[in-house]
Write a structure and sequence with these properties.
This protein is an alpha+beta fold and 140 residues long. It is built from six helices and five strands, in the order αααββββαβαα. 43% of the residues lie in helices and 16% in strands. Strand 3 and strand 4 form a beta hairpin. The radius of gyration is 20 Å and the shape is flat. The N and C termini lie far apart (67 Å).
Length: 140
């Protein structure tokens, strides 16, 4: 985490730290352009990859294939709906103790971890139940 960062990496990291939410690479690209600090989208991706390998940012892949980036200090876990894409943050982390054990056992420097459960949210379950025909409709 102590390697020298480029000016572009610093700009991206600063933007991420100022945000209250994780951003996609496209969001970062757009935000930088809006602040007259534009850089190419390929440069955004290269800088994010370098920051990830330095342990400065974490990447959260979404069910739709998009990735969201945030500073490592944000330890959030989620329940993600596979139908509508809603993401519910979890306040507790059941794996912090396991993380410490793994670092010690394997002498592995863990920068961050993610925990995500995939399924259907309450709203999508309700919609799905309403779309299923009842047994009386099936026999008609």
């Amino acid at each position: 985490m102590t390697s020298k960062r480029t000016r572009n990496q610093e700009r991206i990291l600063s933007l991420l730290k100022d945000q209250r939410r994780a951003l996609s690479a496209q969001d970062i690209y757009t935000e930088l352009r809006n602040c007259n600090q534009g850089m190419g989208l390929a440069t955004v991706y290269r800088s994010l990859e370098a920051l990830k390998l330095q342990g400065e940012v974490q990447v959260r892949p979404l069910a739709n294939g998009e990735s969201l980036y945030s500073p490592v200090h944000r330890d959030k876990h989620h329940l993600t709906c596979l139908q509508c894409g809603a993401s519910i943050p979890l306040d507790e982390c059941p794996v912090h103790e396991l993380e410490s054990q793994l670092q010690a056992t394997y002498n592995f420097n863990i920068f961050y971890h993610t925990l995500e459960f995939f399924g259907l949210c309450d709203r999508c379950q309700h919609q799905q139940q309403q779309q299923q025909p009842t047994s009386s409709q099936e026999t008609s």
